[in-house]
Amino acid sequence: MTSETTDRGRAADGGSGWKGEPGDTSTLLGRPAVGYLDAAADTLGTVKREILRRLGAEPGRRLLDVGCGNGTDVLEIAGRVGPSGEAVGVDVNERAIEEAQARSTGTGVPASFLTASAYALPFPDGHFDGVRSERMVQHLADPAGAIAELVRVTKPGGRVLVADPDHGMWAPDLDDRDATRTVLTWWFDNIRNPWIGRRLSGLLRAAGLLEVQVKPMPVVLDGIAAADGLTGFSDAVRRAGEVGVLPPDRVRALTDNIAEREADGGFLMYGVIILAEGRKEG
Ligand SMILES: C[S@@+](CC[C@H](N)C(=O)[O-])C[C@H]1O[C@@H](n2cnc3c(N)ncnc32)[C@H](O)[C@@H]1O
Hints:
Layout: E1 27-28, E2 31-32, H1 33-43, H2 45-55, E3 62-66, H3 72-81, E4 86-91, H4 94-104, E5 111-115, E6 128-134, H5 143-152, E7 154-165, E8 171-172, H6 177-188, H7 200-206, E9 210-222, H8 224-231, H9 233-242, H10 248-263, E10 268-279
Parallel strand pairs: 3-4, 3-6, 4-5, 6-7
Antiparallel strand pairs: 1-2, 7-10, 8-10, 9-10
Helix pairs in contact: 6-9, 9-10
The structure holds S-adenosylmethionine.
Protein name: Methyltransferase domain-containing protein
InterPro entries: Erg6_SMT_methyltransf, Methyltranfer_dom, SAM-dependent_MTases_sf
GO molecular function, one term: methyltransferase activity
């Protein structure tokens, strides 16, 4: 992403101040990062638990989270690996790391945090029993370069797990399919790799991982508040009108349609996060 106006006429920062550089979590699609990541963690609890299960967060293991944000997952892992293990989080965003460090202070769990880029992880080869990265690769200019680093710092036989949404799969329950498709495409094209979910297994195999598996996990946003919390869908509709992606009458119709659905049993939107994992040879 760039901070320039896109060819669809929407400022990439959504007018919010987010310039879209990889790692800038000051806002994400216009929402403040700290509150946004916490709300997303609640919505995506099932996804996070499945990642943990697959990663094998057991006592004594040394595990890494790349693009750890506020450190929610690192703290969870640290509680499971216990005093004989280690959980490390890295994020390119210093403010995210400061927040994660503040949250870990006084918890007594073996968690540590470092500001670092996924492209240059400050660890020796084979340092970790397993590595996870959730909803980061979607923002990267060079997904293959970052995944190569994840693999490098994983020990032979260890697991690498990458989870990202496929933003081409969002399905809001609305009547005007054409207008809905227009809004969705325009909004999510502001993410650098909106379709990365469907690329992940290929990327992991190309990085040399074995036994690569893909598990699509549903993300159910039940009610407009949930849809807005994770995807900013109401903002997308409103802003599509402001920048001329949709004419005002169709924006009004979509907005009314959301309200009708909400009043009549509840607005529903769903999508998918792809969990891709593989084992490093050895
Ligand atoms: C959507 S957030 C997800 C955070 C966290 N994984 C979670 O599940 O709450 C994406 C994170 O990736 C980080 N990030 C983006 N580019 C990065 C890079 N090149 N290296 C490390 N972290 C990066 C961002 O700073 C942000 O914290």
